[in-house]
Amino acid sequence: MTRKTYLPNEPLFHRDHARPSTRREFVAQGFQAGLGTLLGGSVFSLFANPRAAHAALSSDLLSIRNSCGISTQGAGKIPFICFDLAGGANIAGSNVLVGQRGGQLDFLSTSGYSKQGLPGDMSPSITNPQTGTNDFVNNDFGLGFHANSAMLAGISEKAVMAAAGTNGAVIPARSENDTSNNPHNPMYGINRAGANGSLLALIGSRSSESGGNSMAPASLINPEVRPTKVDRPTDVTGLVDVGDLVGLLSQSDTVAVMESIYRISEAKLGRVNTAISADDVIKDLVRCGYVKSADLADRFGVPSQLDPASDPDIVGASGIFSVDEFNGDSEFRKTASVMKLVANGFSGAGTVTLGGYDYHTGDRATGELRDLRAGRCIGACLEYAAKLGTPMMVYVYSDGSVFSNGMTDDSVNGGGKGVWTGDNQQTASSFFLVYNPGSAPVLIGATPEAQAMHQQLGYMRASGDVETASSPAANNVNLLVETVVLNYMALHGEQGQFGALFPNTGLGNSTLQDQLTAFQPIVNSTVQFPV
Fold this sequence. Notes:
Blueprint: H1 23-28, E1 37-38, H2 59-67, E2 80-85, H3 110-115, E3 125-128, E4 133-135, E5 137-141, E6 143-146, H4 150-158, E7 166-172, H5 187-192, E8 202-204, E9 228-229, H6 233-236, H7 245-248, H8 251-269, H9 277-300, H10 323-328, H11 330-343, E10 349-354, H12 365-388, E11 392-398, E12 402-403, E13 408-409, E14 417-418, E15 422-423, E16 429-435, H13 448-455, H14 477-491, H15 498-501, H16 510-515
Parallel strand pairs: 2-10, 2-11, 8-10
Antiparallel strand pairs: 1-8, 1-9, 3-4, 5-6, 7-16, 11-16, 12-15, 13-14
Helix pairs in contact: 4-12, 8-9, 11-12
């Protein structure tokens, strides 16, 4: 039987699915790309003289900038990017290893791995118990991947510098297939934990309430930080508006004019009666408004300062993407736009939605090609963080998952792996990778056995299905989001504040929360720049 393999940008046609009718269904089946979006203000135009030299904010205004809470690195929290693989992608087994109660290397049964797309001759195992040599197990990024994982291949291709400083954890957790009712997106929770940017609060991938394909937990939604769509690098360069002065004067002259306006306004405000507390508020807003305008002109008066296409670390001979790659794939351009803003502290956190992951097409090659591209996007974010010398947390999730009936696809791209036959929410998992410039994050636990329990938060049955009682997150997507936020806070050493920020949490007391935490802190509350 000849199977059709779909290229990464081709839409998926399923005989067992109705024709897509909602935007979400179009994205999941690849009929429409997952767009890139950003949270910004109500200004979109940036006018500048491209020949102007970068100006420096006057020293007397630097202290005012700090007192106004205007930070060039945002809130100083670890940059956070999540990937929303729309449609129900495979994560467990064929990509990230998920084992039984003892951790990733507490292997499943042969039939369990077969369900997860791995034939018997590709099932991971310990071939030499004395030396601990593992067959089909790769730990290049700390977290155990299947050695033949297409997603791992993509991550490894892009994250060359980042590999030594990366570690990760996997969370076995079921979620419904092909539905928008999965509150997977954690961005509002990450924002509540303190993540914010100097320009934007959050970055999303769609103009939805969550900013991504899946929903956000209703209890976490904050309308003040709802995402706004941006789907190309040129939109990134239009996020800052410092007024028409930048189009008329050089960047340095614009900064000087705005500083002068501030000083004149400050002198006049000093004569205003200060006995009324409302006056204090008004004066502070006016002062900070002028200082912020001067600061924006100083830092972003030239559009190329925000443009990912102009960043040599992202595009070009020494960049993460070649010019042809960047120009030829909208998913790469979207990922670059998001990671440019998040990693530099311009936004606090973001989502990249990648469409077309409902890939149970009766072959394996279609899913492999899409997993490879997802891996390249994930790896690009980690590598950009490494180039900038900043920590980063990358979280990957999908709405549901898939299963294999044991048939194999022996085509070049299929690689002899099991074909994806249909949806199966029981095989679902999410995972996150954390990059730290100094050294790879250290798992909690004094022994390898204890650390294994923190690298896999929950477990699967030997049959390859999620054990729904293995963790609070295993059968509740809302609690999966809370688990991710808890781990984000723990990287800052702030897990003790989780209960105060999320008073109605379902993650139990501090003892249970410690069991759901993967890593020791990598920063003390905030990232100190330079790292």
